[in-house]
Write a structure and sequence with these properties.
InterPro entries: ASPCH
Keywords: Signal
Mean pLDDT: 80
Pfam families: ORF_2_N
Protein name: ASP external chaperone domain-containing protein
Organism: Shewanella cyperi
Largest sheet: 5 strands, antiparallel
Radius of gyration: 30 Å
Helix content: 10-25%
Low-confidence stretches: none
CATH class of one domain: Alpha Beta
CATH topology of one domain: Alpha-Beta Plaits
Length: 156
């Protein structure tokens, strides 16, 4: 037992003499300089209510004037972002019949949730941007956005 205490003491003394065991305080960034890791996203951004649909043209990246099923959307930098599915995600007001609403807008009802959220399909050649504006202007619609397919597995 005496020998192990002696070895330990000499090891610590040797480490301290060569500077290996000196403790230096670790520097922290002051709290006021710390940056939050949460991203600030508004409800409208999350729901897609302020979407600006960009497409690549001969003149570069431009806001879309007309969109159809299969059109590719791009980022500000012109990178492919998503492809339009030809469907619209719509939240209907309470009491609105999804079947009747779809028929009145010449759309097909593909899916309906218990809380008035519906997925509607447009005709293959329909102007989706014009249709979206008509839906948003309808008093029976609380919110509407274009459905898009994005490959989230590929880096952008």
């Amino acid at each position: 037992m005496k020998l192990s205490k002696l070895v330990l003491a000499s090891t610590l003394t040797g480490l301290m003499s060569c500077g290996a065991a000196t403790a230096a305080p670790h520097e922290k960034a002051p709290a006021e300089q710390a940056t939050p890791s949460k991203m600030q996203v508004t409800r409208a951004d999350f729901l897609g209510l302020k979407d600006q649909y960009l497409v690549k043209t001969d003149k570069g990246v431009q806001p879309a004037k007309s969109l159809k099923k299969g059109n590719e959307l791009v980022t500000d930098a012109g990178e492919p972002f998503a492809v339009l599915t030809g469907k619209l995600v719509v939240k209907l007001a309470e009491g609105v019949s999804a079947d009747e609403f779809a028929k009145s807008m010449d759309l097909r009802l593909d899916w309906q949730s218990s809380n008035q959220l519906v997925l509607l399909s447009a005709a293959a050649d329909a102007d989706l941007l014009g249709l979206l504006e008509r839906l948003k202007a309808n008093p029976q619609v609380l919110r509407a956005k274009l459905d898009r397919a994005a490959n989230k597995q590929e880096p952008m």
